[in-house]
Structures are given as structure tokens and as C-alpha cells.
Amino acid sequence: MQVAAEGIYRGFGTSAIGSLPGRALALTSLEVSKDVTLKYLEKFDMPEATRLGIANGVAGMVSNLVSCGYYVPLDVMDNYGGGRPSVMKTVKNLVEEDGWWGFYRGVGPRFVNMSLCGTTMIVTYELIKRLSVKQQN
After folding, report:
1. 0.85 exceeded by pTM
2. How many structural domains does the chain have?
3. If I label 86, which of 44, 47, 69, 122 is the partner at 20 to 30 A Cα–Cα?
């Protein structure tokens, strides 16, 4: 089977444009929530590594919660509009059938999934980053 070079990138622009706002929200909320959590934890007597681990874990969960607020409605609309009607028709049908909360159908399982994966990734990344900086010094 031969695939044209153009076929490899089909839909890339749409995916990139659709993902950029969600990633910007997620990364911004990650850094803000990490800073807020670190400031809050300053008043507790605990090792720095513990404080950083807690802050990164909380930041990962907050970041994923914000991401769910953006991505879940898009996923619901994508799955709901199976026959590919227009966006406005899909929104109208979804609101008529389920109300505005219909856009957040399945947010619980998605949040749990994203939080476990995202928090593990962020905590691991920060730990490796911290260890690599110590080893260089």
C-alpha cells in the first residue's frame, strides 16, 4: 500500500489548532497551581523534596481538571455528531436532548484517566529534571 506524502499530514492543521488552546490552558494552570501550592506549603515543616512532590502532584491534577473543561465538550461533540452534521446543528441537538450539561458527559472517567497519567508524567519529569541538575553540579 502506497501512501502519498500529503496523506501523512492530513488533518494536522485542524488538530494543532484544536489542541493549542487546551495545551496553553493546561500548562498555564500547571505553573500557577504549582506556585500557589508551593507558597501554601512553605508554612509546613517538611523536606523540600516532599514539598515539591506534593506541589507537582496538585499542579498535575489541577492542570488536568482545566484540560477536561476544554477537551471533554469537544470530544462529546465529536462523538455525538457521528453523521458529521454542522457544528451548530450538533450543538442544538445536544442541548435539546441533554441540556448544557450534556457537553460534560463522561467528565469523571476522563478526569481520573488524565489525572493519573498526567500527574505521574509531571511528577516523574520534575524528579528527573531535579536529579539531573544535581548530578551536573
Report:
1. no
2. 1
3. 69
